[in-house]
């Protein structure tokens, strides 16, 4: 059997594509090569195209937004790209411009108003440019500062809580966008900021001023937002360098704790309301566990062992931080645990919460599956995903 | 070989495409965004075929377009469809990605539910053959892999593949011949074993 030559094979394909021949005719013209030709054509036939898998509309929009953003960062036609993943300098740019002291997490209204005036004086272009900034950009701290103005100017406690929830959502979107555009080295700032926003929101929602309905709605929103974005955070953890991963895990832990606390506080409020409605004395129910916002994001606390469920192996006073079985609230080692009445949903036998603290190098999505964050008594409504930053880039 | 007869599917006329590419070369981001809108699915499908992993395919698709934007000054107007140039970039992006990322168990390519055969046995065989052939293609040498995918998955003709790769048509023909021979050897060996 003679071997078919590359030229004859290519000519056959050309003829076939032009409908000027078929395998039978061609093989008849080259009888000595027919067998070799037929088997090669058979192999070519077996190369099926991939199944029709168009980009999902959501992914398409997200990629487009990320692409446009990166394109805006890339000077052309010189084609030199700004280095991605610039080390974030939290609040440094705005702080130096406006005299904000590093460490001040939320600016008072007067400073906020001053910031607007000052920024307008410096040129609205900075603020405009900062709107689309992502973790890793120099202007990202400017963006955070100006978004905090929304909180400072909120007229009511409910509006403040909602503003914090909105900011938390923005931070999660930043994480997703930054991860998509390969800036995983900088996302820990956004995750840290997310933890602070959730913590602040949960503090406000645990007060009596916001209605229980508002508190429940906003807590659900936080849970849903987190569930929608946890994949992005996990992806960032997976791709980041070792050093960044450690920082990200720390930030992630803080976020985890803050959200768990928000859920616990809300459950506590719900239980109080239920007990009051059923005529039980409030003392029998106990107060919802409070924790300062600072304590939830304080690295010293975050470095303590991760809270675990109170079990026979880990009684509340065993020195291990435990999650109160009914509220999920964390109790620090050595502290007298707040009496936990039978409030909130009871533990189901099928509850999959881990009885022990998982290792810190395990991705967050494995440490805290999204179903753990959802209150079993309420159904969450998934809001359509609308990337905040993506909208701005269009 | 009916699929081989199909011309590459372009969502717009060639004239529009040329105008958009020209505008993009001048730095018009909107024109480039329009090119993204037209070719994102094709590039994604191509990347997905090679990585078989949705998140990676999405990330890499974005990288492909970003690299194309950065390098569009170097785009040669050779007559090859613009998407062929994009797919060449996609090839390099995937190769670079494969070097960085440890191989993991990837999902097999699943046909869309609407495309599945009514015959379960036939579907099973089809999936097996498709995955076996795909796996064999991905074991080819890089240049062979690129030519086979461009020719028989993306259905570009010899001239377009040559233009996209910056090689001669003779080179493409030789590589195609070698690659099909190698695929035949691998698939035959697989069937025997």
Characteristic key phrases:
heterodimer, A: 394 residues, mainly alpha, disordered C terminus, B: mainly alpha, 72% helix
Write up this protein.
- The complex is a heterodimer of chains A (394) and B (193).
- Chain A is an all-alpha fold and 394 residues long.
- Chain A has 18 helices and three strands.
- Chain A has helices spanning 6-17, 23-29, 34-46, 57-73, 92-98, 109-122, 124-131, 140-152, 157-180, 187-206, 212-239, 242-277, 282-285, 293-297, 299-302, 364-367, 370-373, 388-393; strands at residues 308-309, 322-323, 330-331.
- Chain A has a three-stranded mixed β-sheet, with no helix packed on it.
- In chain A, helix 2 runs antiparallel to helix 3, helix 7 (124-131) packs across helix 8 (140-152) and helix 10 packs antiparallel against helix 11 (212-239).
- The longest helix of chain A has 36 residues, at 242-277.
- Chain A is elongated, with a radius of gyration of 28 Å.
- Chain A starts with 5 loop residues before the first helix and ends with a helix.
- Chain B has 193 residues and is mainly alpha-helical.
- Chain B contains nine helices and no strands.
- In chain B, helix 2 (14-25) crosses helix 3 and helix 4 packs across helix 5.
- Chain B starts with a helix and ends with a helix.
- At the A-B interface, helix 1, helix 3 and helix 4 of A face helix 1, helix 3, helix 4, helix 6 and helix 7 of B.
């Amino acid at each position: 059997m003679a071997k078919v030559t590359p030229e004859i094979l290519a000519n056959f394909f050309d003829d076939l594509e032009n409908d000027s021949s078929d395998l039978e005719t061609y093989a008849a013209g080259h009888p000595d090569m027919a067998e070799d030709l037929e088997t090669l054509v058979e192999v070519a036939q077996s190369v099926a195209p991939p199944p029709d898998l168009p980009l999902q509309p959501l992914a398409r929009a997200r990629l487009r937004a990320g692409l446009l953003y990166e394109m805006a960062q890339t000077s052309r036609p010189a084609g030199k790209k700004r280095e991605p993943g610039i080390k974030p300098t939290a609040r440094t740019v705005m702080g130096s411009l406006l005299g904000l002291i590093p460490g001040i997490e939320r600016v008072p209204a007067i400073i906020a108003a001053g910031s607007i005036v000052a920024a307008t004086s410096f040129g609205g272009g900075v603020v405009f440019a900062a709107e689309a900034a992502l973790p890793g950009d120099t202007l990202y701290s400017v963006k955070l500062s100006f978004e905090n103005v929304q909180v400072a100017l909120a007229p009511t406690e409910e509006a403040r809580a909602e503003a914090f929830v909105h900011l938390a959502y923005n931070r999660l979107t930043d994480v997703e966008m930054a991860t998509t555009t390969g800036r995983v080295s900088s996302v820990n700032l956004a995750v840290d900021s997310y933890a602070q926003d959730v913590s602040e929101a949960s503090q406000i929602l645990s007060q009596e001023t916001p209605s229980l309905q508002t508190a429940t709605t906003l807590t659900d929103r936080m849970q849903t937002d987190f569930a929608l974005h946890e994949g992005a955070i996990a992806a960032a953890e997976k791709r980041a360098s070792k050093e960044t991963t450690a920082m990200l895990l720390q930030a992630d832990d803080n976020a985890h704790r803050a959200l768990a606390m928000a859920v616990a506080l809300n459950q506590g409020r719900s239980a109080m309301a239920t007990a009051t409605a059923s005529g039980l004395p409030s003392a029998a129910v106990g107060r919802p566990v409070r924790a300062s916002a600072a304590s939830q994001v304080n690295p010293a606390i975050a470095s303590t062992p991760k809270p675990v469920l109170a079990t026979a192996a880990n009684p509340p006073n065993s020195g291990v931080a435990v999650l109160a079985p009914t509220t999920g609230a964390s109790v620090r080692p050595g502290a007298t645990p707040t009496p936990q009445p039978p409030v909130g949903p009871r533990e189901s036998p099928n509850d999959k919460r881990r009885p022990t603290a998982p290792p810190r190098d395990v991705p967050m999505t494995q440490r805290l599956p999204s179903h753990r964050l959802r209150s079993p008594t309420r159904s969450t409504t998934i809001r359509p995903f609308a990337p905040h930053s993506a909208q701005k880039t269009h | 070989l009916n699929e081989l007869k199909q011309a590459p599917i372009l969502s717009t006329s060639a004239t529009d495409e040329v105008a958009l590419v020209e505008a993009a070369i001048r730095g018009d981001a909107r024109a480039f965004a329009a090119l993204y809108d037209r070719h994102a699915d094709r590039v994604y499908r191509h990347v997905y075929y090679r990585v078989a992993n949705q998140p990676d395919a999405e990330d890499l698709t974005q990288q492909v377009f970003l690299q194309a934007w950065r390098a569009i000054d170097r785009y040669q107007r050779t007559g090859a469809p613009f998407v062929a140039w994009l797919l060449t970039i996609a090839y390099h992006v995937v190769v670079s990605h494969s070097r960085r990322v440890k191989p993991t168990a990837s999902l097999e390519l699943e046909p869309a539910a609407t495309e599945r055969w009514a015959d379960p046995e036939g579907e099973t065989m089809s999936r097996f053959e498709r995955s076996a052939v795909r796996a064999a293609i991905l074991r080819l040498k890089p240049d062979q892999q690129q030519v086979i995918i461009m020719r028989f998955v993306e259905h570009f003709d010899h001239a377009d593949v040559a233009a996209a790769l910056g090689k001669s048509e003779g080179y493409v023909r030789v590589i195609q011949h070698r690659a099909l021979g190698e695929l035949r050897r691998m698939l035959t060996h697989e069937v025997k074993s």
